[in-house]
Amino acid sequence: MESNDSHSLSDFVKACHTVSSLPDFRSTIYGQLQRLIPHAMFAFGTVCLSNLILKQSLNINFPTGYLGPNTSQACPEIRQWVREERPLYIGLNDESSSHSSSPALARHKIRNLAVHGVTELNRKQACLFLFGGVDAFPEEVEDRLRLVTPHLYFALAKIGDFDSAPGQSLLTKREAEILEWICIGKSNSEIGMILGISPWTVKIHVSRTIEKLNASNRSHAIAIAMHQGLIEV
């Protein structure tokens, strides 16, 4: 590893061991991570090893349809990693790939996917990191993944309950309020009358909430929000 790369890795490790919040992670560590592993898309989440359910925590630019709404069924590369528990590199039509490309990657136009993670000691779940559009040679990607993943995991463990943090920072007071009214059976028109806004505005808020929570519909958004403690009903 070249001298500049060594310094970059050293700075990254120090940042991972001093991070205090998810916003801090995004503003400091993520920029360093992009320099160490150049990529266009990033996501991390916890996977239950018994049923392969992905509890997505942070998604930067990955198509929601690829990762799926809180399930790994739309993402065969996650299942592949769970079986092997080692760095994966999958490139579209790339002979240097460690595994063959899935139709899901082609459908969502994801080029050069790298995946690695850490399995928890209780063997009940793993924390996975996905990089899309990786711009490096496969051997270098694998080496970098092995180096940075343990420190990424340490940073997230230090932050604490990062699963609920993204939702709390994304939902506005009005979006949470509308979800609560939906929970008790109010229609868009009724909510609009209660809040003094148009039904169309209510619909826009609901659509944004569904997108922010990576939900498939309003009922799914409510379930996610309740699970993460974002609304009180």
Structural account:
Strands 2-1-5-4-3 form a five-stranded antiparallel β-sheet, with helices on both faces. Helix 8 packs across helix 11 and helix 9 (188-195) crosses helix 10. It contains eleven helices and five strands. The chain is α+β, with helices and mostly antiparallel strands and 233 residues long. The chain is 51% helix and 15% strand. The protein folds into two domains: 3-159, Beta-Lactamase, CATH 3.30.450.80; 165-227, Arc Repressor Mutant, subunit A (Orthogonal Bundle). It has helices at residues 3-16, 22-36, 64-67, 76-84, 103-107, 138-159, 165-170, 173-183, 188-195, 199-212, 218-227; strands at residues 41-48, 53-60, 88-90, 113-119, 125-132. It is elongated and about 60 Å long.
Record the SSE blueprint:
Blueprint lengths: L2 H14 L5 H15 L4 E8 L4 E8 L3 H4 L8 H9 L3 E3 L12 H5 L5 E7 L5 E8 L5 H22 L5 H6 L2 H11 L4 H8 L3 H14 L5 H10 L6
Antiparallel strand pairs: 1-2, 1-5, 3-4, 4-5
What distance separates the N and C termini?
54 Å
Number of strands: 5
Helicity level, as a percent range?
40-55%
CATH topology of the largest domain: Beta-Lactamase
| The CATH homologous superfamily of the largest domain | Transcription factor LuxR-like, autoinducer-binding domain
